[in-house]
Write a structure and sequence with these properties.
The chain is α/β, with parallel strands linked by helices. It contains 8 helices and 8 strands. The structure holds magnesium ion (MG).
């Protein structure tokens, strides 16, 4: 199947967090407080994606308050933290939203993402993703995790769906 055909039906993007929305660094201060760095352009992309009427969600094995804060900021309501096995969690989200696998894109960077990645209609990974993921992914972004990879993916899909230009016009007057 051509990549454009895979992108057309996508209504939901599910994303891993560490190594995709961040560069994968886990930083802790002396009190054990964790910090992560998110890319502002990923945020813009996620907002635009949601404004287009599509849905965005995250599934992560770890649990942190920072992720919760960032997702609230972006208006992302599908937040599944502490999800060690991503496949059952992902399938549950998809079922709850009444979607089918061909309407879902998943982006991940490491082995724990493989099970879900190999089931969805559009599988994506980042430039610095694990080799095993690259071999099953339909798209490997040119950007690394935490460097605008999700924005790149969103832009590709919205352009393929012929929505990009209209969204820029509506929301940015371009
Ligand atoms: Mg990861």
């Amino acid at each position: 199947m051509k990549i454009d055909q895979r992108m057309q039906p996508i209504r939901l993007i599910l994303s891993d967090v560490d190594g995709v929305l961040t560069n994968g660094d886990l930083s802790f201060d002396n009190q054990g407080i964790e910090s992560k760095t998110f890319h502002v352009r990923d945020g813009m992309g996620i907002k635009l994606w949601q404004r287009s009427g599509h849905q965005f969600g995250i599934i992560t094995a770890r649990s942190s308050h920072i992720v919760k804060i960032r997702m609230v900021e972006l208006g992302v309501e599908i937040v599944r933290q502490g999800s060690e096995s991503k496949l059952p969690v992902g399938l549950q989200v998809i079922e709850e939203l009444g979607l089918t696998l061909n309407q879902v894109c998943y982006i991940g960077d490491d082995l724990s993402d493989l099970s879900l990645l190999s089931r969805v209609g559009l599988a994506a990974t980042v430039a610095d993703g694990a080799a095993e993921l690259k071999s099953v992914a339909h798209i490997t972004t040119t950007a690394k995790g935490g460097s605008g990879a999700v924005r790149e993916l969103i832009e590709l899909i919205l352009k393929s769906q012929n929505r990009w230009q209209e969204l820029l016009q509506t929301h940015y007057g371009i």
